[in-house]
Specification:
Elements lengths: L1 E4 L5 E4 L1 E3 L2 H14 L3 E6 L4 H4 L2 H13 L4 E6 L2 H6 L3 H8 L4 E5 L10 E5 L3 E5 L7 E4 L3 H17 L1 E2 L1 H4 L4
Parallel strand pairs: 4-5, 5-6
Antiparallel strand pairs: 1-2, 3-9, 4-7, 6-10, 7-8, 8-9
Helix pairs in contact: 1-3
Length: about 170
């Protein structure tokens, strides 16, 4: 996954088709590992089988430690479900607030059924349906990232703080 240099000054994109859970796990790790400044995640419930893994937690922690200015923005549609499942990203977000921010999309805005992860201006992983592993990923796709980022930022702007992510569930 990623890009191949065609010449010293030109890179071509290599979009990878995702079909299986393992494909999505590898693409998630690669996309997060590519981030240097900004990560954006759009998810229904923080997908425990994909995002609640030690490798993801370690990458997010390392990313936040790189710079105080690094930011992880997470839009989660069902924060209650994620909190009740004990997703460890929530605890990490509590420890690293305000670098990791959670919000819930406005119910007044049309939502997609899928999920995606964006890293900086180049890398992405996107799945059109949350109940399927089919999707695409690329480490050098600025146009696709710009399209997904536009959707994300439009929804972030009208989103509410996700209280389920800030409250301790005992």
């Amino acid at each position: 996954m990623g890009s191949v240099k065609q010449s010293d000054q030109e890179e071509i994109s290599l979009t990878v088709a995702l079909k299986w859970r393992d494909d999505v796990v590898i693409a998630t790790d690669s996309t997060l590992g590519h981030a240097r400044r900004h990560i954006q995640i759009y998810s229904y419930d923080l997908e425990p089988e994909i995002l609640d893994r030690q490798a993801v937690l370690d990458q997010l922690l390392q990313f936040c430690r790189l710079s105080r200015d690094n930011l992880v923005q997470i839009l989660v549609r069902d924060g209650k479900k994620a909190a009740q499942s004990g997703n460890r990203i929530i605890e990490l977000g509590r420890r690293l607030s305000p670098q990791i921010q959670f919000r819930k999309p406005s119910p007044h805005k049309k939502q997609i059924d899928g999920s995606f992860v964006l890293a900086d201006d180049e890398a992405y992983l996107a799945r059109p349906r949350r109940d399927r592993y089919f999707g695409t990923a690329d480490l050098n796709a600025p146009a696709k990232v710009a399209e997904l980022r536009s959707y994300f930022e439009d929804h972030w702007q009208f989103a509410e703080e996700e209280l389920e992510m800030r409250q301790l569930h005992i």
